Amino acid sequence: MTPLIIGVLVVSVIAITVFALAAALLVYTRTLAGTAVSPTLSLPGAGAARSSVQDLIAAYDVAIDEADRTQITADLAAAGVVSLTAIEGEAFDPSTQRAVATMPTTDAFEDGEVALLHRPGWKDQAGIIRYTEVSVYRYIGE
Fold first, then answer.
1. Looking at the 3D structure of the chain, how many domains does it have?
2. Complete edge-to-edge strand list for the sheet that includes strand 121-124
3. Do 56 and 110 share a domain, yes or no?
């Protein structure tokens, strides 16, 4: 590939990323301003309310500032949505976690344990909204 094509691809990826971040934060800002459906109406089958919860979760995923994440978490909690996390070294739990990658280990005792948290999961009274995304250790021998 020529340097020009590589440059165009890099600029395109950056532009798409910036656009996605801006869109998620705009949705979050509009939700706080009351121009979107309130996430407190998150009930099973309430499509627009469920969409607002999904928008808040997307905003959480792209928020850089910890204060923003704290506010979004509080907004989700007000809607009855709680965060699901995973701790490195705990046993992988397929009922709340999804393995998105594996990491090799030579320690047989680590096999099947959480190696890394990628994204928190979320649940409400109706069940899992998004599974916690983790990497899991897999024993490869010595």
1. 2
2. 82-84, 121-124, 127-130
3. no
Q: Which of 116, 125, 111 is nearest to 97 (CA)?
A: 116
Residue type present at position 7: G
Q: Number of C-alpha atoms within 13 angstroms, CB side, residue 93?
A: 13
Q: Summarize the confidence of residues 5-22 as an average pLDDT.
A: 56
- Residue 131: the pLDDT is 97
CATH number for the domain spanning 123: value is 2.30.22.10
Q: Per-residue pLDDT tens for 72-118?
A: 999 999 999 999 999 999 999 999 999 999 999 999 999 999 999 99
Residue with tokens 């995973």: 86
The Cα 70–Cα 93 span in angstroms is 25
Helix (H) or strand (E) holding 21, with range, is: helix 3-33
